[in-house]
Amino acid sequence: MSDNAVLTHKCPNCGGPLLFEPKNQKFHCEYCGSTFTEQEVTEFEAKQADAAITDNLSTTSVSADSNENDDKTDEVGIFLCPSCGAEIVTDATTASTWCYYCHNPVVLTSRLSGQFLPEKILPFQIERDDAEAKFLDWVGKKLFVPKEFFNKKQIQNLSGVYFPYWAVDADLSGEMSADATNLRVWIAGDIEYTEHSQYAIARSGDSNFRDLIKNALQKNLADKMVGSVQPFDMSAAIPFKNQYLSGFLTEKRDIEFTDMKENVEQEFRQYADRLMESTISGYSSISNVRSQQQIKKLDEDYVLLPIWLVTYRETGNDKLFYYAMNGQTGKVAGVLPIDKTKLWIWAIGLCMLILILGILVGYFIS
Fold first, then answer.
1. Residues 312 and 343 in one domain
2. 349 and 361 co-located in one domain
3. Domain total of the chain
4. DSSP-derived secondary structure letter, 10
5. N or C: which end of the chain has fewer CB within 10 A?
6. How far apart are CA 97 and CA 8, in angstroms?
7. pTM score, two decimals?
8. Are residues 268 and 354 in the same domain?
9. Are 296 and 184 contained in the same domain?
10. For 211-224, how does the pLDDT look when each residue is reduced to its tens digit (9 = 90+)?
11. Pairing relationship of beta strands 285-313 and 191-215 according to DSSP bridges
């Protein structure tokens, strides 16, 4: 690891760890109760860096002894906590987490720098307490969910996670042509007339698309989650600052935009085709649609999006279930397990109720 590979954002007043608070979009110290804006934290840390004070009061980490050790450490995902010096073991895509020993939030800045530096971040807007309440309310309405899925231990596993995505904008210019037919039938006296009218349809124009969100993490769960809790209001995204990661987990991208560029371009062309096709109406039939869409401009931003997440691996098999909530809007979705015992008890009870009602109806009729 290099210098500044791992950091914990510290309180300017007492040196305790700072946590980002979604409710007021500020940074809070749980030790002295102080609250700071992002600008105040940034200015404090800039002064710390300029003064080059001791490691215990700075936000930098202890560096490895050699470049050879740096490469090896990055490969196995081992970092040193800047607060207590304990080793932090992570998988290859983790970019912010918690120290298992002192429980301070840490940001692995080496995984969010250079080519992996995000352009934008959409900060959490939903507080953890609100996320827990929404989780219990949503799951509580599901009749056959196992009790273990929403017990106290499971609620503690609720995690705020920034997931990596590509936000893509595109400008296109295109043309479309098609053959159309109108059929008109009328009766005059005893004679029925049919009129066929044929038309040559032509369309041309420009189309613009903004913020197509594409998953940048190979884990299939990430793609399912963002699709289920969209949309995000990307107008609220701000230039990336790693201070917003403090107190949350963060995943680093492992899918490059070049790997998906061809598919994304084809997706934009299809969207443009649909827009042009939507302008063709009032005909009995349309055939021989021909289209050509040229992408004039394509821009992509590496962004981090907020999701509250609970996962659950069902006892006896490896099937993974999840609950996800949009950390900005509060929209929830999930794939929940079913307690088969509850289901059978409910089914048997329903059958018995129907049987009893049938007996009672028969008794009163007779």
1. no
2. yes
3. 2
4. B
5. C
6. 10
7. 0.77
8. no
9. yes
10. 999 999 887 666 66
11. unpaired
Q: Which domain holds residue 327?
A: 159-335
Residue type, 29: C
Compute the average pLDDT of residues 344-359. 68
Q: Are 168 and 200 in contact (CB under 8 A)?
A: no
What percent of the chain has a predicted confidence (pLDDT) above 90?
Answer: 42
Asked whether residue 215 is domain-assigned, the answer is yes
Together in a domain, 227 and 358:
no
How confident is the model over 144-180, as pLDDT tens digits? 676 766 666 667 778 899 999 999 999 999 999 999 9
73 with 2: CB under 8 angstroms? no
Q: Cis link prior to 231 (omega < 30° from 0)?
A: yes
Confidence band for 8, pLDDT divided at 50, 70 and 90: confident
Question: Is the per-residue pLDDT at 364 higher than 90?
Answer: no
Structure tokens at 323: 């609950």
| Residues 181, 282: Cα–Cα separation, whole Å | 10
Q: How far apart are CA 304 and CA 225, in angstroms?
A: 14
pLDDT for 149 equals 66
Q: Which helix (H) or strand (E) holds 307?
A: strand 285-313
182 & 304 share domain: yes
